[in-house]
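Hi Y.,

Following your request, here is the sequence exactly as I used it, all 141 residues.
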Amino acid sequence: MVLNARRTAIVLLPLLLVASCLGEFASAHATKPLPKVAIRGKVLVGDAKSFHSIAIVSRREVFDVIPAIRTLRAEKTGKDSARYHFLVYEANREFQRALLAAAARRGVDLVVEEGGVEAAGIEVADLTADAIAFFKQPVKK
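Below is the corresponding structure, written out as tokens. Let me know if you'd prefer a different format.
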């Protein structure tokens, strides 16, 4: 009986020493706390639950330079016409393409409407100028 207790102690003692050393090692290399980010606006690109970098965009400023919106305003098309719905659909498609291109160029994986994010400890980029530049570049044929 005494031999079994001694063998158990001999086996457990090194394990306890290793465990205590690992505990100190793990606490010495703890990760930094995550930054506080509150998203209250509409998410335009990406997933608000899983992202690495965040940006905002002014939808009004980008929509003002979209050719389909300019056509819609110039023609003063009624909201009940098929032409109006086609132009709105085309403007939304172009807006989404511009956002995706701007986000890819800047390495951003979450884009929220302007004023829709509060972030402490994380940089929030503004993609408005990049999205507008998408419409200024020459069309590739």
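The chain has five helices and six strands.

Thanks again,
Q.
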